Automatic annotation (TrEMBL):
UniProt keyword list: Ribonucleoprotein, Ribosomal protein, Signal
Signal recorded as keyword: yes
UniProt source species: Tripterygium wilfordii
UniProt-listed HAMAP family: Ribosomal_L12_arch
Protein name per Swiss-Prot or TrEMBL: 60S acidic ribosomal protein P2A-like
Highest taxon above the source species: Eukaryota
Entry GO CC: cytosolic large ribosomal subunit
GO BP, sorted A to Z: cytoplasmic translational elongation
Region (Disordered) residue spans: 79-115
CDD domains documented for this protein: Ribosomal_P2
Function statement: Plays an important role in the elongation step of protein synthesis.
Family: Belongs to the eukaryotic ribosomal protein P1/P2 family.
Lineage: Eukaryota, Viridiplantae, Streptophyta, Embryophyta, Tracheophyta
Keyword Ubl conjugation among record annotations: no
Amino acid sequence: MKVIAAFLLAVLGGNPNPTANDLKTILGSVGAEADEDMIKLLLDQVEGKDPTELIASGREKLASVPSGGGAAVAAVAAAPASGGGGGGAAPAEEAPKKEEKVEESDDDMGFSLFD
């Protein structure tokens, strides 16, 4: 990820075709080690391609990836049924929801947004 971030920073900085040395310089400026193999792999993969188009195509691919809690809920719901023995699955009980009261504090050390 850090190599990709360095590449995108170089592009945002106005360098449409960053080199391996450009990426090493960016990574070195924040004290990160530059992995030669990863830099070479990235530059080979993006050679001749527009970074904006790469990001757009990546977003399209991510749109089909489930990102909600549905998979975890399905796995938890299926677990009791696979436990073996003993009749049907019992309905899941909902945990009681706790309502937390947020108390306002006057410990703002004398600073106020509207004073």
